[in-house]
Amino acid sequence: MPGNAVSLLKSILTNLPEVVKPTQKRLSFREKLKWTGSVLMLFFVLGMIPLFGLGQNELQRFGLLSIILGAKFGSIISLGIGPIVTASIIIQLLTGSGLVKLDMTSKDGRKLFQGIQKAGSLAFILFEACIYVFMGGLSPMPGISPWVLIAQLCAGGLLILFMDEVVSKYGFGSGISLFIAAGVSEGIILRLFSPFTSSGVFFMGSGEAPVGAVWAIFHFLSIGAAKDVLTNLAAITATGLVFAIAVYTQAMRVELPMSFGRVRGHGIRWPLSFVYTSNIPVILVAALLANIQLWARLLQNKGMPILGTFVGNTPASGIVAWLQPPDLLRKLIERGVTLLDLGHSAVYIIFMIVGAVIFSIFWVQTSGMDARSQAQQMMSSGLQIPGFRRDPRVLEHLLNRYIWPLTVMGAITVGFLAATADLSGALSSGTGILLTVMIIYRLYEEIAQQHMMDMYPVMRRFIGG
User: End-to-end CA distance of the chain, in Å?
Assistant: First the structure.
């Protein structure tokens, strides 16, 4: 009976509803662009649909967190990518620690892993919807049942889940990355060019400073507020520096010389990016921090400030305060930096680096980016390293010399960049800006590769694409 139950559970997990893969082996550039653009438009439209029967919205004050979570608090997609990423974090921790053992080298093992991840995402959609409503984050209007809000939140969560699958199978990149990049880009444009104040009125004649940093500089110059001018200039400069450093880091790579065993005189260079696991570890760490802040706020509303307390929208004490990056640049301009500020910054930087390294290692082990999987992919493409025997074990041994150092060093670099970007007071979230640059850069690489394949179909056949 236990054996039958396990078989039944595996059957359910491997047959959960999913977006059907395309029948074509390779979609055209225009087809992928159409699907990606359609999903992006749908994401923005869903973000403008308010929850029916919503009363008080305690989550609307977490503007930056909503960007990281790809959510629009108060809309039908208030959950954003939170359930998907949270499920991924927990499952990676379980598989990475060995508590859940899956053979990620086999097709059935990978399919079972994906089924567990989807089941976890579905469970967290329902769980987080209930938490948001019953903990007071999103309260229903008088006479409206809480389950009306929960049903809408679950529907929005399911839409995000399947939209992510559509982008992953029919478009460029992944839906999670796309939603984060869209939210951050929207936030940067508003905080850079919006001529309206925080109360929603045009800044000319209102006496208030506008949200957009460009207009704010002219406003503060007109009233002689030199420190505020410097603060806004520093925010714009920090944003530009984060963009430049992130692009440079993404371009760094190690290239392994490879040859085609059956074609003499022809070879390629197999690139291994310095940031080997790309933006995934930072997404997971940022989502973890966002969940900690949301939970801290909800627990405080219920009189249980286990994770810390807030004063207004600002964390004031406890774990949540230490994991909130201080705006060092603004403090340096306005009043100077204290030892407590430096200690607070050090704690935040260490947390980001350690978290990025842990998730990076787990991601390599569970996503087919380890040396064994890469060696098998190379061998199946007919590639080998010149001067070495054509043996997957030899190739795996050589790849291990590069993959694990790149995994750790790349994660340390990305974690440090994300932390310093947050501390610099850049427009929007520093982590969000870094993620957006990395997402757009990878998207550009994928689009360029797809365009090359469409332009030169002979090359696609040659490399087995």
Answer: 45
